[in-house]
Amino acid sequence: MVAADGANLREKAIQNGVDIYTFGGKLMNCGGYGQCGTCIVAIVEGLENLSAKTDFEQRCLKKKPENYRLACQTMVNGPISVQTKPK
Ligand code: FES
């Protein structure tokens, strides 16, 4: 997936029909306010094109690999490739 400059990763995914939520996340996600942690994605390429992790991400993703992000908290500034619904 490739996203445009300065776009929010969650918005961009939804616009492009990319399904970022697991079943549970679809039923109850926080709507992009960085509160539920269900919009988690793994960045395969282009980590350097993303905004820095927010405080919420730091907390929520503490036990996850470095390349995991919350899509709604992430601004995209260049080409990236994303894996949705990482384990
Ligand atoms: S949509 Fe809830 S944390 Fe991203």
TrEMBL record:
<protein>
    <recommendedName>
        <fullName>2Fe-2S ferredoxin-type domain-containing protein</fullName>
    </recommendedName>
</protein>
<dbReference type="InterPro" id="IPR012675">
    <property type="entry name" value="Beta-grasp_dom_sf"/>
</dbReference>
<dbReference type="GO" id="GO:0051537">
    <property type="term" value="F:2 iron, 2 sulfur cluster binding"/>
</dbReference>
<keyword id="KW-0001">2Fe-2S</keyword>
<keyword id="KW-0408">Iron</keyword>
<dbReference type="Pfam" id="PF00111">
    <property type="entry name" value="Fer2"/>
</dbReference>
<dbReference type="InterPro" id="IPR036010">
    <property type="entry name" value="2Fe-2S_ferredoxin-like_sf"/>
</dbReference>
<feature type="domain" description="2Fe-2S ferredoxin-type">
    <location>
        <begin position="1"/>
        <end position="87"/>
    </location>
</feature>
<keyword id="KW-0479">Metal-binding</keyword>
<comment type="similarity">
    <text>Belongs to the adrenodoxin/putidaredoxin family.</text>
</comment>
<keyword id="KW-0411">Iron-sulfur</keyword>
<dbReference type="InterPro" id="IPR001055">
    <property type="entry name" value="Adrenodoxin-like"/>
</dbReference>
<dbReference type="GO" id="GO:0046872">
    <property type="term" value="F:metal ion binding"/>
</dbReference>
<dbReference type="InterPro" id="IPR001041">
    <property type="entry name" value="2Fe-2S_ferredoxin-type"/>
</dbReference>
<dbReference type="GO" id="GO:0140647">
    <property type="term" value="P:P450-containing electron transport chain"/>
</dbReference>
<dbReference type="GO" id="GO:0009055">
    <property type="term" value="F:electron transfer activity"/>
</dbReference>
